Amino acid sequence: VSLTDADRRARWDKFRQADPDCLWEPDYAYTIEEPGPLKRWEQRPVDLPVLVHREPSPDSWDDLNIDGPVLTVVVAVEPGEENESVEMLEGLSAGNDGRIELLALTRDGYAADVLRRDVPQVTVIEIAPELTEARVRNTALYLARGDYVTFLGVGDRVSADGLDDLIDGHDQGHGALCVLVAELPATPVGWAELLLSGAEPGSVYASFVREPLRALGGFDERVPHRIDVSAARALLDRGFTAATIPSVVRRGQASPSFAGLLRQRFEAGRRSSSDTAGGRITDAWRELRALDGALDASRRSVAGLIVAGGAATWLGRAARRVRPHRS
Known about the structure:
Elements: H1 5-18, E1 71-77, H2 82-93, E2 100-106, H3 109-118, E3 123-126, H4 133-143, E4 148-153, E5 157-158, H5 162-171, E6 174-181, H6 188-197, E7 203-209, H7 210-215, H8 227-237, E8 241-250, H9 258-271, H10 277-291, H11 299-322
Parallel strand pairs: 1-2, 1-4, 2-3, 6-8
Antiparallel strand pairs: 4-7, 5-8, 6-7
């Protein structure tokens, strides 16, 4: 495909059409480079076996974690939540057959000491107070050993079958799983954010496939709020699907500010690999009309915020075309 200048130019044009934003490689300039000096062909010895190593060496399997956990559950423990978190973690670890790994992340040294003393079966990780929420989650993402990672907060409710349901949901091929939220948004901004995110009302993304999310860069630190939505959208844009697990319930979900909503939607547009902004606004409008009595905020205000958020998404898409984002 690179014997002549015309062949190389055709290859360059092909990659420019297939990957215009350079998502898969940072630069395709090598496709039009002229050939270098010829190298001498090394003659293969006649008695050289086709398979040089017929059997694996004893150390070749050391990096395989066949017996490792399937699901890593990460519980964020804030100062003052140490006693409640101990009760929650004891409940999560009850009857664990080895498929579940429990990580407790905290910025509080006292809480870390309490957790290490009272729930020794849980891995406790102290994190620096200045770390952002995205950085905290990425720390957990890289320390986790499970195929799937679920992020919970102290006070979230998990039924007896909740962890099994999370594993089953991912095993069915879903890259991101939603859990229910005990309280619906209380502000127009919260409703607009929920509808534009694509999540079902009363749900939030909480569980993800680990390796694909790591390959996509993990959680985006530039998104100030609902980093779970940004991570899930990145997976969905790559062909994964999502589902809701009703046996896990999030205690509550804070709403962003108006500026936070716009910034979140801008970054969502800039990170998206497909031009879905128009469809998402249409879906948000349709879902807004279908809410009826469930909406406890001004419908007109929510509609205006959906338009503003959609415009921010389009601006993010435009910024990506001008200056492609490198993942």
